[in-house]
Each structure stands twice: as C-alpha cells, then as structure tokens.
Amino acid sequence: MTAQAEKLDTAKRKALTPHIYDTFIVGAGISGIATAIRLDQAGYHNYKMIEKATRVGGTWRENTYPGCGCDVPSALYSYSFAPSANWSHLFARQPEILNYLEEVSEKFKIRAKIEFGTELLNAAWDKQCHLWVIKTNKGQYLSRTVVFATGPITEAQTPQLEGLDTFQGEMFHSAQWNHEYDLTDKRIAVIGTGASAIQFVPQIQPKAKALYVFQRTAPWVVPKPDMELGNLSKAMIAKFPFIQTAWRKTVAQSLNAINFGLRNPAVLKPIGELAKLILRFQIEDAELRKNVTPNFTIGCKRLLFANNYYPALQQANTRLIPHGLVKVEGNHVVSANGERHEVDVIIWGTGFEVSHPPIGKRISNEKGECLHDLWKNSSPEAYLGTSIENVPNAFLILGPNVLVYDSFIGLAEAQLDYIVDGLLKIKQQGISQLNIKPEVIREHNELVQKHLKTTVFNAGGCKSYYLDANGRNFAAWPWSLKTLKQRLKHLDLNDYEVTYQKEKAS
C-alpha cells in the first residue's frame, strides 16, 4: 500500500470511528449553563451539551404566566461569577431572569456550544465499554461521563379527575400558559394555591367576570419585601460592586436564619403567630380570614411571598373555595363539598412532578433498569443529591435530598464544586468507572432521614410535595447550607468503587 493510500485509509477509519466525549451535559437551564462555564474555566473542553428547546433558560423559559417571578432576592438568584446591576426589582421578574441567563450564556461563549432542538431519549451505561450511550432525536453519542442538569421542576402535573374529558371550555397549566386565549369577562376556575397561583391570580382577577379559586390547603403567604430599583440604584450598584457583594451576603444570612428555623420548628411558632396577626389586618371578612389561615406550622410547606394575593381574593368577582376540585361535569366544576360552578376556563396551578425526577424515565443504570421503574414503588435516593447507586460516571444536579431554602443557582454551584472535581479526577487519573458504594449511599440516606424527622418539613403537620406517596421526605436537606457546601467541596474517591483504565485493559 502506498503512503498516500495508507493515509487515506487512516482518515477513513477515523471518520467512521464515533467521537467519544469526556462529558455530556443534558439541559441548558440554570444548572446546565453553570456546568459548561465551570468546565471551560477548568480547561475541560471535550464535552457536548444538548437542549430540547430552541433557547436556554429551563424553568424560566417554560414558565411565562402573568406575574411570574422569583421569591428569592435577585442578588442571590444570580451566579456568583456573574453578578448583575440590571435587576429592576429586589425580586426579579421572569422575563429579566430569562434575559440574564441568555446574556450569561453569550458572555461566557456557551450558547454557541449548545445543540438546540436535541432531546434526550435514553441514556444507558455500557458496562463492557465503560461508556454512556446517549440516544437523542438527532442521533446517538458516546461519552465517558454525563451530567444530568434537567432540574426538578420541569414536568407539569395535572390531576386526572372524573369527567375532565367532558369539559368544553379552555384548559391549561400555569407552566403552559395560553397567551392567545383572552381571559376578559371569562368565568375562571383556578385549581391550586401554590407558588404560581399566588402570582398569577392577582394578574388575572381584574379581567375575570368571575374567578373561583380552589384551595385544598391554605398556604402561608407573608408580605414580600420587594421594591423597584430605579436607574440611580442600578448605576450605584454597577459603579460600586461592593454594594452587590454586601447585598448578596445579607440575603444569604437572612436565608440561613430561615433555614435554622426550618430545622428547629419551635423557633417558628412566634413567627407563625405574628403572621396570623398580620393576616387579621390584611383580611376584613372573618370567614375568608378563617379559610386562608393555615393549620400547620409555618415553613412546613413552601413559604410564599406576595403583597397582592389577599387583596385579589377580597374583590367582588372572586370567590375562594376552601376545598379541592373533585370532578368536572360538562362545563361545571365540582368541589369536595359539592359546590358547583359553571366556568369557561380551567387553569391548573397544581405544580410539578417532583417526587420522582422526570429525567429518571430516560436513564438506564448499569443493570439495564430504567430508574423511573425502580422508583415507582420506592423513593429516589442519591448521595449528596448527586450520585445514584448503580449509575456510574454520572452526576445529577438538584437531585434528592439536597434542597434548602436558598437560591437554586447557589445550590447548583455548590454541587458543581463536587461534580467538576470528580470529572477532573476521572480524566486526570485515568478512571474508567466511578460508582458510589452501596453502603455509603445507604448510610448517608439513613442519617438524612433520621435528622429530617425533627425538621418542620416532617414534624410541621402538613402534607407537602417534600413528602412522597410513601410519606418519605425525598427533597429536603436536614442540616445547614454551610454543612452542605462543605460536604460538596470535593469528591472523595474513598466513597466510590473505582476502576482504572489499566485494570479494565487487563
């Protein structure tokens, strides 16, 4: 064979050999963007990132309902490495959070690396080759590791009720808002009084002919310490970065205080009494006040912040129904106490499927088992919310039992300290397989569940989305944020079963 022919043959073989990525990132929301930036900063460039939508943003791209915004102050709901002086309010609105995420992805040159319109169909571990086989709607890829940055609030949850198929009006979930539908002079049923409902109810109330708000459990809604940041304030923050730093630190300390209360429910009782006292001044009607007064310890369910929700409930065209919706008969909605109302539109404010991470439907472990199937009759578990048993060389961001009352961005960044450290060790030390030890994940989760028993989430007298069908708290972290960050600072190889490439070759 001539030298030229040999050269052509080598080129042909290379073209037929699929590229193997060091890491595959699934999702371009807040955690996916942060993952790519951190990898670039670490000099780790052989990765691929996919996103099923056509733009970045994750939950802030999907949720566009009227009034959508963040209930964590803007200073903390931003990346530590990319502070912004452009927030219009102390608590940012959805459009500017989405804009911020797009600006950050452009500034750090991440957007150009994302393959949009690419949906993960299945990720399976090949135990012979020690590789992840990533199947998407645009083809198949191979990767040594994978980071699932898909988030816990991605799959809208709509109850399957009797007679729902008989409804002839308009119907949509808050996370799939139909902006083409005009709510003016419509009879509207809002199902649920969670975080999204308390934001959009005040926005749609002035348009409605009649507004029926179905409430199964009264949430704690406290005044929101929000204010507009004018041009002068923005200019000062931009000119003097220490203001932003101090603001961020103050917010973090405030959230740490809240987290202390969540771990020690007795501390929250006086706060609950104060909240009830404030409620007396907010609502004149005794019957309505009784119906919106929670019957559980403050903090047991997600604490909600709003200044306009209670005023909206007191308008002449609004009626709070302190019962859940149980069935639909034609265009009539029927509550648990038998109350019936004819409506033109049903808006679901029923939240998301969070008890079992939706991404589990698309992941197969080293035994070939689908995680979603494994979790059907049990609660999902992870080590530090990051590593899952029998799922080697893979990391999950914002996984089970890692949530504290803080910014999701801050939590994702903390996990990335751990994840990036692990990815670098895998690459630099020639590790072909990294699998969390069964005894490590078991001991960790036994301790987590033991300490959760005394927190307000478990002992506060409510049924929240933190508790799954088995009554097990799958979401909360029982200790301080400081402790979580310390545990996530580095990945300890002693917690894992480690296989090196030379071992594999032998």
Mean pLDDT: 92
The major pleated sheet works out as: 8 strands, mixed
Distance between the termini: 33 Å
The second-level CATH architecture of the largest domain is 3-Layer(bba) Sandwich
Radius of gyration: 25 Å
Q: Give the beta-strand count.
A: 20
**Spans of 5+ residues with little confidence (pLDDT < 50)?**
none
CATH topology of the largest domain: FAD/NAD(P)-binding domain
What is the approximate shape? globular
CATH superfamily of the largest domain: FAD/NAD(P)-binding domain
CATH first level of the largest domain: Alpha Beta
Strand content: 15-25%
List the total number of helices: 16
| Percentage of residues assigned to helices | 25-40%
* Class per helix and strand makeup: alpha/beta
Number of domains: 2
Topology, element by element:
Elements: H1 3-16, E1 20-26, H2 30-41, E2 47-51, H3 59-62, H4 94-107, E3 114-116, E4 120-126, E5 131-136, E6 139-148, E7 170-173, E8 187-191, H5 197-204, E9 210-214, E10 221-222, H6 231-239, H7 241-263, H8 269-282, H9 286-292, E11 304-305, H10 309-313, E12 318-321, E13 325-329, E14 332-335, E15 340-342, E16 345-348, E17 363-364, H11 371-375, E18 394-396, H12 408-428, E19 431-436, H13 438-452, H14 456-459, H15 481-487, E20 496-500, H16 501-505
Parallel strand pairs: 1-2, 1-6, 2-3, 4-17, 6-18, 7-16, 8-9, 8-16, 9-12, 10-11
Antiparallel strand pairs: 4-5, 5-6, 13-14, 14-15, 19-20
